Amino acid sequence: MKPGKVYLVGAGPGDPELMTLKAKRLLFESDVVLFDRLLSPEILSGLNGKELIDVGKSASHHKLTQDEINVLLVKKAKEGKMVVRLKGGDPYLFGRGGEEALVLLAEGIPVEVVPGVTSAIAAPELAGIPVTHRGITSSLTIVTGHEEPGKDSPLDWSAIAKLGGTLVVLMGVTRLDKNVGALISGGKSPDTPAAIVEKGGWPEQRLITGTLGNIVQKAKDANVEPPAILVVGEVVNLAGKLAQKDQKTQKAQNAGRKLAILRLDAQAAESSRLARESGFDPVCAPAIALEKKPLPIDILSRVDASDCVVFTSANGVDIASKNPSLLRSLKSKKIVSIGPKTKVALEKLGLSSSTPKEYSSTGLEKMLSGKKCRVIFLRSAQGSRYLADDLRKAGTEVDDVPLYEVKASGDKRLDNLILTAGEIDIFAFTSSSTARFLVERAREMGQEGLLRDALERAQVAVIGLPTATELKRLGIRVDVMPEKFTFESMLQALRSTQ
Questions:
Q1: Buried b (16+ CB within 10 A) or exposed e, 366-381
Q2: How many other CB atoms are found less than 10 A from the CB of residue 199?
Q3: In the chain, N or C: fewer CB atoms in 10 Å?
């Protein structure tokens, strides 16, 4: 069998939006992803069907040794698979990417490196510290603060202390006192400006500034945890000036509440981006997944017999678009879209639609001008019954065609969310099925009590009356429901409650 190929891919400093386009593309094209202790779990969002292997390493715990990771890379590639070895930052900057590449090449396996934005530059930059600045310094030294035990050529901290310019120490939280002590012992002045950037690129990024003489104590007082980097040099003094515009944003992020996003995995990345922009700390845990249903053999005649076609989601539009005959039939029909996302999905197909002002039978009746007509719904098998039932009561002939089934996601992130539900500040329910499957999974795990306690303490937000009705049936209080039934409107409503 011809071996596959391994891509050594840099994930950047933490923010999924700081990944390269090539890195994102390769993730979705891959068969297997071996990932380190990533700076954001959102980076893996939307990778349904991929084999995801956590080989994460931290200062005190290795899930797999480097030799075991090498063996696994070779094994997966020799199975003919496309493998992405995903690393925080850049693969070749203290990422052991070179070691892995040599092992793979020795086995005759093709390797390609995809550079990533390194936290050595990005983290200080995001905190308002340029690592070089005209008139202050034109040199940069990057070292590791966590050396391998027994290394033949250990770092000469005395020599490093004598260097000018900016010094960035990566992975040095656990040895911060020893590293700083070595710099001072080597001749670096205790008055030299120093800073710790914790979780650079994360929503909860923090900056602690001081001098070499007090930065260790300041880090202890602030309870700094990895990942964090140490920056030493006069450029640290620029943080107060260059970070001024971002301080309000950073403060909002630091105070950001954890918001659980339970919608489809395919929607997680966009939802997370919107949540972060609103100052929330998104926690993606898909509660649902979609399973397409075969179209009825008489679907074209049923559409032709209708006066109006109603889509209630962009998912339904996407599924319908895969049938060329159905798509052609829709071009001659009056179409109603429930929600702006559905409307946009139709527009991308060249289909115009009307949208009722409210997601209800009343809103749809008003749009139909009270005319008795035949309406066909193309939507989820679990779509709310009240909309169709109320239309029938008003004398409208309704045909309901299920295009897809909503089922439990089986996602491990949902299990983890349930076990840590007490840490969540806001639960965002975008459909009745997200609520139902969350509760059902907690019940299966024997953790329903834990979940309900967390829901009682947290804020609960919903999109749409059907979702609110389902939560009421489940005995869960609803705190926020925006007038406009979109995720963006939900976030805006939540911001107003802060």
A1: ebbeeeebebbbbbbe
A2: 20
A3: N
Cα–Cα distance, 231 to 22 (Å, whole number) = 30
Distances (CA, A) of 63 to 56, 285, 485: 6, 23, 43
Active site residue 36: yes
d(CA 13, CA 40): 9
Could you give the CA distance from residue 197 to residue 205 in angstroms, rounded to a whole number? 7
| Average pLDDT along the chain | 87
Q: Reply yes or no on domain 121-252 having CATH 3.30.950.10.
A: yes
Task: Catalytic residue, from 57, 63, 218, 334: name it.
Answer: 57
Name the nearest CA neighbour of 446 among 418, 414, 477: 418
85: exposed, middle or buried (Cβ count in 10 Å: 0-12, 13-18, 19+): buried
CATH of 5-117, one of 1.10.579.10, 3.40.1010.10, 3.30.9.10, 3.30.559.10: 3.40.1010.10
Identify whether 57 is a catalytic site residue.
yes
- Provide CB contacts within 8 A for 217, sequence distance 6+: none
256-287+409-495 CATH, one of 3.30.70.120, 3.30.70.3340, 3.40.190.10, 3.40.50.10090: 3.40.50.10090
Q: Angle between the 432-444 and 448-457 helix axes, to the nearest 10 degrees?
A: 130
User: How is the chain split into domains, by residue range?
Assistant: 5-117, 121-252, 256-287+409-495, 290-408
Q: Which residue has the higher pLDDT, 372 or 268?
A: 268
Split at pLDDT 50, 70, 90, the class of 237 is very high
Beta-strand ranges (E) seen in 171-249 are 193-198, 206-211, 228-232
pLDDT in tens, 395-440: 778 888 999 999 999 988 899 899 999 989 999 999 899 999 999 9
Class of domain 290-408: alpha beta
148-193 pLDDT tens trace: 544 556 789 999 999 999 999 998 888 999 999 999 999 999 999 9
Please count the other Cβ atoms lying within 10 Å of the Cβ belonging to residue 206: 18
SS3 251: helix
Write the pLDDT tens digit of every residue in 56-81: 755 444 578 899 999 999 999 999 99
pLDDT at 393: 75
Which residue out of 15, 19, 36, 281 is catalytically annotated?
36
Integer-rounded Cα radius of gyration of the chain: 27
How far is the first Cα of the chain from the last one, in angstroms, to the nearest whole number?
A: 58
| Distance of alpha carbon 127 from alpha carbon 247, whole angstroms | 9
196: nearest Cα among 129, 102, 149: 129
Instruction: Determine which one of 76, 87, 90, 171 is catalytic.
Output: 171
